[in-house]
Amino acid sequence: LKDVDLAYQNLESVELGVTSVDHYFDTLGGVARAVKRARGGQETAVYIGDQTRGSGKVRSLKDQIALETRSRSLNPKFYEPLLRHGAEGVRQIEAHVTNTLGWSATTAQVEPWVYQRLSETFVLDEVMRKRLSALNPEASNRMAQKLLEASDRAYWQPDA
């Protein structure tokens, strides 16, 4: 593993991104973490290939997470239809937050603004927080706890 130059994952579907399901950070993040350990703490480059819409595009993991955060997690055109499904919709949003935290834990490739904006959108906005809590109090609480955990792990620093 100490001779590995990079880790790569090709996206399999337009339906799923690297923050949608945990198997991406479980496997690719785990490989990246093992390589880092074998290399004495030196990070390895992690890339995501996206050929789901025709011609291929390769992005750094950091860029892919930022893109998915903007286009999915923070996009009302993405999360409002989820919320129409009630409790399951809140659980899906919480899964994106949890999987984002998983990427931070395994690769440190999540920029602090991601957590700030997720917090602003789903926890600090009182109307949204009450809405999520009414639909699925357990998932809403887990989401807030994951954002606090990200702060405790120094992945971001909330505004005072």
Helices, strands, pairings?
Elements: E1 6-10, H1 22-38, E2 45-50, E3 57-60, H2 61-73, H3 76-83, H4 87-107, H5 112-124, H6 126-135, H7 137-152
Parallel strand pairs: 1-2
Antiparallel strand pairs: 2-3
Task: Sum up the structure in keywords.
three-stranded mixed sheet; about 160 residues; mainly alpha; about 60% helix
Give unreliable regions as ranges: none
Average pLDDT over all residues: 95
Strand runs, count: 3
The secondary-structure class comes to mainly alpha
The quaternary state of the protein chains shown equals single chain
Any overview of this molecule?
The protein has one domain (6-152). It has seven helices and three strands. It has helices spanning 22-38, 61-73, 76-83, 87-107, 112-124, 126-135, 137-152, and strands at residues 6-10, 45-50, 57-60. α1 (22-38) links the parallel β1 (6-10) and β2. The longest helix has 21 residues, at 87-107.
In a nutshell, what does this entry contain?
The chain is 61% helix and 9% strand.
